[in-house]
Amino acid sequence: MYVRGLGGERPAVPVAPERLQAAAQARLNAADFAYIAGGAGAERTMRANLAAFERVRLLPRQLSGSRDRDLSVELLGHTLVAPLLLAPIGVLEAAHPEADLAVARAAAAERVPFVFSSQASVPMEDCAAAMGDSPRWFQLYWGTDDEVTRSFVRRAETCGAQAIILTLDTTLLGWRPRDLDLGSLPFLRGRGIAQYLSDPVFRSRLDSPLPAPALQPARTPTLLRAAAELSTRGRKYSLNLSQMRAGAARFTGTYTRPDLGWDDVSHLREWTGLPILLKGILHPDDAREARARGVDGLIVSNHGGRQIDGEVAALDMLPAVVAAAGDLPVLLDSGVRTGSDVAKALALGARAVLIGRPYVYGLALAGEAGVREVIQNVMAELDLTLGLMGVRAARELTSEHVRL
After folding, report:
1. Which CATH number, 3.20.20.70, 2.60.40.3500, 3.40.50.300, 3.30.420.40, labels domain 47-181+258-403?
2. Where is the FMN hydroxy acid dehydrogenase domain (predicted)?
3. Which of the two ends of the chain, N or C, has the fewest CB atoms closer than 10 A to its terminal CB?
4. Maximum distance among all alpha carbons in the chain?
5. From residue 55, how far is each of 50, 52, 230, 279, 388 by CA, in Å?
6. Cα–Cα distance measured from residue 38 to residue 31, given in angstroms and rounded to the nearest whole number
């Protein structure tokens, strides 16, 4: 980057997290940026996630470094080139027209796992085809239609997913003022529901749509524009406007399940032989119950602060969950912005981390190339951090390398 700078070339994607977000905001319209960047309520949880990393300080050792550092980690029987995954993010078309497909290509190029979202803008099959043999996982939202859920699991298996992540903290959609103030929910416009519209079981339900007053025939200019969007998206799936309205209505009426319980986790264990990770674990007792239910890993997360306002910071709960998890691998997301953040999470017991908003901002700025730059920046800073701390491998980071 410095050498290219001699010729006047600047990075397409700002390196500093704050400037990265600001550049993406300048590129996106208000509704799309609100959906990507917003959090629950007064966004106290979002701020708490960032503040938690501020409270953890790295403690380097001198004269113990190495010319080359090893970023690789072992996870669920696979070797990852770095302790980094791309988190599942819904409605990526809000950031860039190529959406999940651009992210899939970027992840494949950098050999980091991409977690396909249930709320994707591109079907998982298309993303898997673009990734070759690169690692991919699938994130599952469990709605009220168990047959659709099972269909998603079967498709993920067929797509070569190496694991299923069951998200637990979004059985209801959080109170999100940025979206509410704009009256903007992308799913009502047919955005972010590609996995559903491409699913044979879900499509078989479209002849019996659920009632949705917001989706009645368009009469105002705004509704007419929404109808035009639905029609355009419907053509991708050979669906007419009526079917698209039915699809959006059925999705909004069935995709959340507030009464999801531990027995459902046991059912999922019966449905698939793939490793299962539970995402949204914050309480140590939930980690213990997860072990008893035979899951394969945990993800400490508060959904990036998008669900409960005033919730505990994910990083603050990481050590306690790791202690309760026993031999289960524990990952972390929520608030990770930099390579030094990754180092802090690893030192506190995480096996790997997931990044979310940063790569979406890169996607907004430069598509696939922008996502790659964000990945490269995080990995480069992690490598330099290890070198400056006198640590030869990412997996060697321990609590001895941090002070609270």
Report:
1. 3.20.20.70
2. 9-404
3. C
4. 72
5. 9, 5, 46, 24, 20
6. 10
pLDDT tens for 254-298 read 998 999 999 999 999 999 999 999 999 999 999 999 999 999 999
Task: Please state the separation of Cα 14 from the chain's center in Å.
Answer: 21
Catalytic residue IDs? 303
Can you spell out the DSSP letters for 211-275?
Answer: P-GGGSPP-SHHHHHHHHHHHHHHHHTT--HHHHHHHHHHHHHHS--TT--HHHHHHHHHH--S-
Distance from C-alpha of 291 to C-alpha of 326, rounded to nearest angstrom: 8
Nearest Cα neighbor of 179 from 48, 245, 91, 116 is 91
Is the pTM higher than 0.90? The answer reads yes
| Nearest partner of 52 among 353, 264, 334, 281, judged by Cα | 334
Q: pLDDT tens digits for 345-354?
A: 999 999 999 9
DSSP letters for 41-53: TTSHHHHHHHHHH
In which element (H, E) is residue 75 found?
Answer: strand 73-75
Q: Which residue has the tokens 């986790």?
A: 265
